Amino acid sequence: MTDHKLNYVIGFLLLVLSVVWTWLVIDTIPAGFGEGDIGPRAFPLMFGLCLSGLSVLLLLKSLLNGPRNEPEHSLTAEYQLSIHWLPAVLILIEISAYGYLLKTVGFVIATPIFVLFVMVVNLRIRSAKMLLGMSIGITLFCWLIFEKALGIYLANGSWINLG
Amino acid sequence: MEHFLNAFALALTPMSIAAIGLGSLVGLIFGSIPGLTFTVALALALPISFNLDAVPAIGLLLGTYIGGMTGGSVSAILLGIPGTPSAAATVLDGYPMTKRGDASIALGTAVIVSVFGGIFSLAVMIVSVDLVSKVAIGFGPAEIFALVLFGFSTICGLCGNSLIKGLIAGVLGLMIMTIGLDAIEGVPRMTFGSVNMMQGVNLLVAMIGLFAVPFIIEAFSEDPSKSANPKKMANVRPELPSFRLLFRNIGLMIRSSLIGTGIGAIPGTGGAIASFLAYDNAKRFSKKPETYGKGNIEGVIAPETANNAVTGGTLIPLLSLGIPGDPATAIVLAGLMIHGLVPGPALFMNHAAEVYGIYIAVIIAYAWVLGLQLLGIRVFVHVLRVPREILAVVVLVLCAIGAYSIRNSEFDIYAMAIIGVTAYVLVAVRIPITPIILGMVLGPTLENEFRTAMMLSEGKMDIFYTSPTVIVFFSLAALLIVFQSLSELKMKRKEKQKEDLSDA
């Protein structure tokens, strides 16, 4: 995707976000009473409008610059390389699943499962020694340092609790 | 005097010294590994600081900051890859020294001059921060609003190549901070009936997500066979420079310290600019400029002194006015606020002992950095051999622990994941992250002070144009925006001229 096309997409998405935000602000937050009370609505509303203005500016800028002003090299390999959707979505799912596991089975069980999964799926590591070492090592290290040494509360499971 | 004695009592407890040492160690390790910035380390250290008293907590954060700034030189000298952007200029002469077999003396000199730069800037900071805060003591809500707005305009310096995208990021940060209960009237805003959302987006959770998660995704996206892991590294140990060498370069060290402190005091600049300016200055005044880039020790002394002097410089606007100069100090600011140390003139009246305790913590941090780097350099060399993606797994677990431990809620882990992945996409489409943090940190003050000022003036706007201080801050903010717009235009013209020339 070229620079100006990318800016187009960003500008459009941000404009949609700002319109939805502004509508929600007007619909759900009460206005002030006047006489110095500007109320809780004023600032979120102003920020929504600012975002709309800036998104329109970004759209206009990419429209005015257009592809004719685009240098050839900006058909960037950088963009194609820099957004890796699969690892990003995987991380989102993995962290969310880890959060759920922490709540249900606690830190001591959730962490080795999580580390094992990440290393097998994301890093494609197959060495049993490495997998076991990392999953048990990280869990033990964190449990000793945070729970025992620093006294930071690590999650206890609601189904099982080993911590 | 009483405040100083109290400060010593606060800063010299075993817990304080251990916390500062831990921060320095973590900062050194994170700073020395390319790609694993000390900002990530700070974001991870922030939740740990939550359980500590104010001075050990801020000491932990400052130790991480200082350790990270110094640690960047290790990989710059040994691998030719800067651990942090501020160590980029160190590569120019540090790496040629390693290739020549002088890595040990380069590392030793880098540590000593880093400590010199840091302590020098601390002294300048102690003198100037008091003066600046004395000026700020008479500020009312209108003046504070104008000051925060000026602080917000420093986004211009943090927005990279596009002012519009920087401003968009800033507004996004401001919008995020309006979510939750309104601080003045207690009205829920954009909470959609969720109890978790009532408390708003936690600043710490957002910081972990914004800085650490994009790094993890990038590390996991890399092809392990293509990652630049050091295979061969010289057997190094830091070798202290001779007094003669240091004495010969004392003028250069003072000049570089002044450059670093001055640049650090300007919000939105940072260590990278300071180190390159100091390098350029050293080369310009050198008797042998032709030896620069070929392993001249002055090319290590200048950038390393300057980038560490930035640490003291950034604390001047941070402590006296509450304006963070870079992402790292934005996290330190969050740490200060969490512990009830609200920067500004009142900080020196209400928490003098804690402030002096922070000064002592900086000195302890430099002592730790010196000791750790001199004794532990062989260990750091081994850490540099660990693949980035393996370190990312450890960081991922630490992020989750950090996010969870703030409110013992898995909701914060989900929030961190969403914010982190969004931040990754934003970085990829070249929307800078730092203005979001600035918006999140300064947003609540901006709104509360404006609303208080409006209540005091009974809705009349003249409160904002009758005070000379307010006018000065508004003008400075406008000047910054105009200056950035002009430099952006100039840069574009240069690019166009280059293209025209290449077409011809």
Topology diagram in text:
The complex is a heterodimer of chains A (163) and B (504).
Chain A: H1 3-28, H2 42-65, H3 77-82, H4 85-105, H5 107-121, H6 128-149
Chain B: H1 2-11, H2 14-32, H3 38-49, H4 54-78, H5 88-100, H6 103-135, H7 141-153, H8 155-158, H9 163-178, E1 180-181, E2 188-189, H10 195-198, H11 203-221, H12 243-248, H13 250-265, H14 271-285, H15 298-321, H16 327-338, H17 345-350, H18 352-383, H19 388-407, H20 410-428, H21 434-456, H22 468-503
Antiparallel strand pairs in B: 1-2
Name some characteristics of this structure:
heterodimer, A: 163 residues, mainly alpha, 2 domains, 0% strand, flat, B: 504 residues
Outline the structure in words:
The complex is a heterodimer of chains A (163) and B (504). Chain A has 163 residues and is mainly alpha-helical. Helix content of chain A is 70%, strand content 0%. Chain A has 2 domains: 3-80; 85-149, no CATH class. Chain A has helices spanning 3-28, 42-65, 77-82, 85-105, 107-121, 128-149. Chain B has one domain. In chain B, 75% of the residues lie in helices and 1% in strands. Chain B has 22 helices and 2 strands. Chain B has a two-stranded antiparallel ribbon. The mean pLDDT of chain B is 83. The interface between A and B is large, with 64 and 63 residues.
How do you describe this structure in short?
By secondary structure, chain A is an all-alpha fold. Chain A is built from 6 helices and no strands.
Instruction: Return residue spans of chain B where pLDDT drops below 50 for at least 5 consecutive residues.
Output: none
What is the mean pLDDT of chain B?
Answer: 83
What structural class do helix, strand and pairing data of chain A support? mainly alpha
How many strand elements of chain B? 2
Helix content percent band of chain A: 55-70%
**Averaged pLDDT of chain A, please?**
84
Instruction: Please work out how many helical segments of chain A DSSP would assign.
Output: 6
Strand order of the largest sheet of chain B: 1-2
Structural class of chain B: mainly alpha
- Secondary structure: number of strands of chain A: 0
- What sort of overall outline of chain A do the alpha carbons produce when their principal axes are compared? flat
Tell me, what's the shape of chain B? globular
Give the ordered list of helices and strands of chain A. HHHHHH
Radius of gyration computed on alpha carbons of chain B: 23 Å
